[in-house]
Known about the structure:
Blueprint: H1 3-10, H2 15-22, H3 27-34, H4 42-51, H5 56-64, H6 67-72, H7 81-96, H8 99-106, H9 113-145, H10 151-158
Helix pairs in contact: 4-5, 7-9, 8-9
Amino acid sequence: MNMYREVRDRLGLTRDQASELLETIEPGKLERIESEKQLPSPDDVMIMADKYSEPNIRNYYCANQCPMGQHYVPRIKFIDLEKTVLKLVASLNAMHDKQDKLIEIAEDGAITDDELLDFISIQKNLEKVSLAVDALELWTEKMMSSGIIDMDKYKELLNR
């Protein structure tokens, strides 16, 4: 099923109710987006993510429907805080064990054939760290959009 439709259904909204909530997306356009006859615009995605309080809609669009994003943006799965933190700590621990090797590889400014396998392994570990950080950011956005975390207080503390 289409991601946009899944979110609307999960919220228990009819297409007309959703269109009213979204304000700038008429029911006909919403139907075309949900039936995959039309791609949403980036503005449509931002509105749906904000009004539905589902920030993962932005990641879905970027990772799956945006031509540039499909190449550069990984799909982030929303998971609970405990699993997110465990994944982050595990990936950081794995990276900690490889930091000396990374320094050794980088010190001459080149990657030799005998260093290539280690370098690829380090890249994969760094990608796991990056995905875990992205998942934590997505979790935080979701908590702010649903009011569980006070967004103003969060931003105030973040900018200190």
